[in-house]
Design goal:
Elements: E1 9-15, E2 27-29, E3 33-39, E4 42-45, E5 55-58, E6 62-70, H1 77-84, E7 85-90, E8 96-102, E9 110-116, E10 125-141, E11 147-154, E12 156-160, E13 179-183, E14 195-201, E15 227-235, H2 242-249, E16 252-264, E17 267-282, E18 285-286, E19 294-301, E20 311-316
Antiparallel strand pairs: 1-2, 1-9, 3-6, 4-5, 6-11, 7-8, 8-20, 9-10, 10-11, 10-12, 10-14, 13-16, 14-15, 15-19, 16-17, 17-19, 17-20, 18-19
Length: 321
């Protein structure tokens, strides 16, 4: 017997043509965390006669999972396309620019592989089929590698052969010390953030049932509003009052978080998140002792005609997702 360990693990992803028909995985990611798997939707049959269930039925089989990766300039484009829906690419080698906005046309589904390269598990990769991203969260950190989490729902999960993985080089990880920040018209120390997070909720359902010949979910579709929200933390200072004024007035502000990486052609690798119209939802100030007071700005995005509620621009060595 060979036990499974987190070491030697990776996640791979490919773009399907038909929902639930698995395809080869073409891009691979390092793992920081994962949860979930096949959810059979198993519920008990309960009657008055018996004090315990008399049986079980499956209603709404699906794969429900989340994966957390380091944010890298390469290898994440398929995931971003599935989460954001709209992509425009500038195919000028070698520094390709990919611009993602919140779109209106649902993208193609994904096949997601959870693999481990240990020999005993060569045929035991978990293959999630027919997957769509329901939530994406980016965490930009001042003291560690930045992370991105994708929560997704799929039609089902099966086992298959592990694919040999090629992941992004560590020099392409988004690291502390590579950021520039725009917070409205503020300057200086006001832009020295402890951390920042951005969450996109796509509005896709987790899959509905219908009266047909199997117990799998229907293909997930848009049943709710898309929402972009987030927060950032920094020291409290008396000199930046612009956001405090907008907290009272309800005015919008611009938030841009950009990481610039190694040289690439005539440019650099980069990862930029722009919130063109953010509205402050709350501004809790934390006084926990005689030391520095900090504040956490919580915000929510509203639509913008040019950039949507959020625009992500990535300069990468990959021509296509």
């Amino acid at each position: 017997m060979t036990r499974l360990y987190g070491s030697n693990s990776h996640v791979g992803v490919g773009v399907e043509s038909i929902w639930g028909t698995p395809v080869a995985r073409t891009k691979f990611q390092e793992l920081y965390g994962e949860t979930g798997g096949l959810n059979p939707g198993r519920v008990p049959i309960e009657t008055w006669r018996a004090r315990t269930p008399v049986g079980f039925i499956d209603v709404g089989k699906k794969a429900v999972a989340s994966v957390t990766f380091p944010i890298t300039y390469d290898k994440l484009h398929i995931w971003l396309r599935n989460a954001m829906w709209d992509l425009t690419s500038s195919v000028v080698a070698p520094d390709y620019t990919h611009t993602y906005k919140i779109g209106t046309s649902k993208p193609s589904p994904l096949t997601v592989e959870h693999g481990n390269s240990a020999a005993a598990f060569a045929a035991l990769a978990r293959i999630d089929e027919g997957c769509f991203v329901r939530r994406m969260t980016m965490e930009f950190m001042s003291d560690s590698i930045s992370k991105i989490t994708f929560e997704y729902v799929g039609q089902t999960a099966a086992f298959g052969a592990v694919t040999a993985a090629t992941v992004a080089a560590t020099n392409l990880f988004v690291k502390p010390g590579t950021f520039t920040v725009t917070v409205d018209a503020e300057t200086g120390e006001a832009l020295c953030l402890d951390n920042a997070s951005v969450t996109l909720e796509t509005g896709l359902d987790e899959g509905r049932m219908c009266l047909k010949g199997d117990t799998f979910i229907r293909e997930p579709d848009l049943t709710g509003k898309t929402n972009v929200s987030g927060s950032f933390a920094r020291d409290w200072d008396s000199t930046w009052t612009g956001l405090q004024t907008k907290l009272g007035s309800g005015g919008t502000f611009i938030l841009v978080i950009k990481s610039t990486g190694p040289t690439l052609g005539g440019s650099n690798y980069s990862w930029e998140v722009k919130i063109p119209k953010a509205v402050i939802i709350g501004d809790p100030v934390n006084h926990s002792g005689p030391g520095l007071a900090t504040e956490t700005i919580n915000w929510q995005a509203q639509d913008d005609a040019a950039d949507s509620a959020m625009k992500i621009t990535v300069v990468s060595s990959e021509a296509t997702p």
